[in-house]
Specification:
Layout: H1 4-7, H2 15-51, E1 56-61, E2 64-70, H3 71-96, H4 115-121, H5 131-136, H6 139-165, E3 173-174, H7 193-216, H8 231-254, E4 256-257, H9 259-262, H10 270-279, H11 284-301, H12 310-316, H13 324-328, H14 330-335, H15 345-359
Antiparallel strand pairs: 1-2, 3-4
Helix pairs in contact: 2-3, 2-8, 3-6, 6-7, 6-8, 7-8, 10-11
Length: about 350
């Protein structure tokens, strides 16, 4: 259509550097979309945290009840994970944000190109510094796929907890009907299908990363046709993330937390009972042994620590006084952990304030 003018468009260009610059521009745009979706999820998590500063729940190690925390503290733990995901995607953006045009097929060109001016016009802050690397680099795609895999891993961990929490054994959460399904034969079932589907999609994105790593591991410099295999894993991971993040965010926004059930502490205040003795002058190893014996006694009696009488406490150690009951209340256990990073409402509010300051 353009005659001789059109014929000149290919001057000093190769498919190799043209494809490289097109892909980098596309990846930049897609990363910005993903970062926006992660931000939306973080906002929902922060709102959930702010609404549940005083909602006490058990924290776990080895999937065994360990110490009391708050639902706010739990939500903010995932905020920290997704903050790191955003940083990883920003690093992938920076990796892609370098202009390779002028690299030619592999050995640059004899034409006196103004590469910096082209980079400026295409909104790249920098140009590639080596023509061989410029056409054969796909690290920016691997950076994206790595960030996507870790982000999906975080979603999967969260989904795993929500699946457990929605079971009858936990019953910490009630899924909205829009994000759960019934059984074809069991009328009582309410299956957390969306969380399970998201958990399963994580393996798919891992496969995308491993696929491209395997393709790239045996490629000599410079361009080889193998590198056309970079598109499919990228598009698949991109599609999966673009669907997974907003669905998870909506599922989290609409679920209901059972505060009354979460508050049942078991022996999560046992550490605080030991700390109580330490503050009375007892060595921690001795306090640890005493409270271990107390817990064993409670298990046999089918009682909680706070159910014991003061005389029962004193039978295990004379340092126990009436104030032990206040010290072991779940509210006191949580509020006492007020150092930066702790689950106390004041510490969580400080964490939120720091996030807001950082965003400004």
């Amino acid at each position: 259509r353009s005659g001789d003018t059109g014929k000149r468009l290919h001057t000093a260009r190769s498919r190799n550097d043209q494809v490289a610059v097109d892909f980098r521009m596309y990846v930049r745009k897609e990363i910005q979309a993903i970062i926006g979706l992660i931000l939306d999820l973080e906002k929902v998590l922060v709102r959930k945290a702010e609404a549940n500063l005083d909602t006490v729940m058990p924290g776990y190690t080895h999937l065994q009840r360990a110490q009391p925390v708050t639902l706010a503290h739990y939500m903010m733990a995932y905020v920290q994970m997704f903050l790191r995901d955003r940083k990883r995607f920003q690093n992938a953006f920076d990796s892609a944000n370098v202009m390779p045009l002028g690299s030619g097929a592999l050995a640059a060109t004899t034409y006196p190109l103004n590469r910096q001016r082209v980079a400026e016009l295409l909104d790249f802050p920098a140009i590639t510094q080596n023509s061989l690397d410029g056409v054969s680099d796909r690290d920016f795609i691997l950076d994206y796929l790595s960030a996507a895999s870790i982000c999906m891993m975080h979603l999967s961990r969260f989904c795993e907890e929500l699946i457990l929490w929605s079971s009858s054994e936990f019953h910490f959460v009630e899924m909205d009907d829009a994000f759960s399904t019934g059984s074809s034969i069991m009328p009582q079932k309410k299956n957390p299908d969306i969380a399970e589907l998201l958990r399963g999609k994580t393996g798919r994105v891992y496969g995308d990363l491993l696929s491209l790593l395997t393709v790239m591991k045996g490629i000599p410099l410079a361009y080889n046709k193998d590198m056309q295999e970079d598109k499919e894993p990228f598009f698949d991971a991109r599609d999966t993330l673009l669907k997974s993040l907003p669905v998870f965010t909506a599922m989290l926004r609409t679920m209901t937390f059972r505060e009354d059930i979460m508050a049942a502490g078991g022996f999560t205040n046992a550490t605080d009972c030991a700390d109580y003795l330490v503050k009375k002058g007892v060595a921690f190893r001795d306090a640890h042994r005493v409270v271990g014996e107390l817990v064993a006694y409670c298990i046999k009696a089918n009682a909680a620590l706070t159910d014991l009488s003061l005389s029962e406490f004193k039978a295990f150690h004379p340092a126990f006084e009436q104030d032990v009951y206040d010290a072991m209340s779940l509210k006191a256990c949580v509020e006492g952990r007020s150092i930066p990073g702790g689950p106390a409402p004041a510490a969580v509010q400080q964490e939120n304030s720091q996030l807001r300051t950082a965003k400004q």
